[in-house]
Design a protein that fits this description.
Distance between the termini: 17 Å
Oligomer: single chain
CATH superfamily of the largest domain: Response regulator
CATH topology of the largest domain: Rossmann fold
Radius of gyration: 20 Å
Bound molecules: beta-D-fucofuranose
CATH class of the largest domain: Alpha Beta
Shape: elongated
Structural class: alpha/beta
CATH architecture of the largest domain: 3-Layer(aba) Sandwich
Strand order of the largest sheet: 1-12-6-5-4-2-3
Helix content: 25-40%
Largest sheet: 7 strands, mixed
Order of helices and strands: EEHEHEHEEHEHEHEHEHEHEEH
């Protein structure tokens, strides 16, 4: 079990809501949102493996970025009368009705990875996922530090993730809240690139063409895959990633570490996809009628190019 930092904002007594399944086999329906990035593949693999290890039967449906497909998967889980439903929500809005349907069926819900924007937080038991705002803050602090000796008029480009997704919204917010400290630092271009390599490459090509003689000096990519795509575009454009353009990304995949060692990415903010064991543990707790914190946050770090070589062999994804 990785150590976790739990923030208890509100707890509920689960035993009064759901009958105890202590000694029975647990069936979990899991609606995964897609397979857009290395982070996501590691997340899915972690959940599949941990279910096996925990002896929990996992019904997994991958929605490939469609909220509607998530709704269908969830309805199929309700029909099958699974014991617990886990949802990694593609976007944060629009969940009230389906969560209400699950509640009426008497099935507990765990939200994992990205969060949902619902007023009635009793619609789910717990949310296991990273603090994306904090990740944005870390990225902003690194940007300030890296550029501290550079004269003003610093041009920043931003590759955002999926529109409406919690990590994209909160990483962008955290980053802005920090860099506003210097009013000569400006995000001159910002666009969604779907958390994919192809998206990152395409949007970065556009950025470089639009910017012409005045390319951005710093790129904040909301994940490693988009940074990797952007690096291809930057090199094809004849500039040096990591030098002509400082690059900060989020996740901490093995490939991003390789790029850091090559000097093409300057810093990576860690976002941990290995959430499977936490999810299975939560399922067992719920079925055992125990109380869980409303929010479970895995611990996360920041890695810079200077130390990437020391860490790379420890990366698990
Ligand atoms: O950073 C990105 C993925 O929701 C935290 O989604 C996750 C993000 C992750 O596609 O690579």
């Amino acid at each position: 079990m990785p150590t976790v930092e739990t923030v208890v904002t509100e707890t509920i007594n689960i035993s009064s809501l759901y009958p105890s399944h202590m000694n029975e086999d647990i069936v979990m329906g899991f609606s995964q949102l897609g397979s857009e990035s290395d982070w996501r593949l590691a997340n899915t693999a972690s959940i599949v493996e941990s279910a096996k290890e925990a002896g929990i039967t996992l019904l997994l449906e991958n929605a490939e970025q469609s909220q509607q497909a998530q709704f269908s998967a969830i309805r199929s889980f309700i029909e099958k009368q699974v014991d617990v439903i886990a949802i990694a929500p593609v976007v944060q809005t629009g969940w009230e009705n389906i969560l209400q349907e699950i509640k009426e069926a008497g099935i507990p819900v765990v939200i994992i990875d990205r969060s949902v924007n619902v007023e009635d937080t009793s619609l789910y038991v717990t949310f296991i996922g990273s603090d994306f705002y904090e990740e944005g803050i870390k990225a902003g602090k690194y940007a300030l530090d890296k550029m501290r000796n550079k004269p003003g008029g610093i041009r920043i480009a931003e590759l955002e993730g999926t529109v409406g997704s919690t990590p994209s919204i909160d990483r962008g917010r955290g980053f802005r809240d920090v860099i506003q400290e210097r009013d000569d630092m400006e995000i001159i271009m910002s666009q969604p690139a779907d958390f994919t390599i192809e998206g990152g490459k395409k949007v970065m090509e556009q950025f470089l063409q639009e910017a012409g003689e005045q390319p951005p000096q710093l790129l904040f990519a909301h994940n490693d895959d988009m940074a990797i795509g952007a690096i291809q575009a930057i090199e094809e454009f004849g500039l040096e990633p990591g030098k002509d353009i400082i690059i900060i990304s989020v996740d901490g995949t093995r490939q991003a570490f390789e790029m850091m060692i090559e000097g093409k990415i300057n810093a990576v903010i860690e976002c941990n996809p290995l959430q499977g064991s936490l999810l299975m543990q939560a399922a067992r707790e719920i079925m055992g009628g125990r109380t869980l914190p409303k929010r479970i946050i895995p611990p996360e770090d920041i890695f810079t190019q200077e130390y990437a070589h020391l860490e790379i062999d420890h990366r698990k994804y």
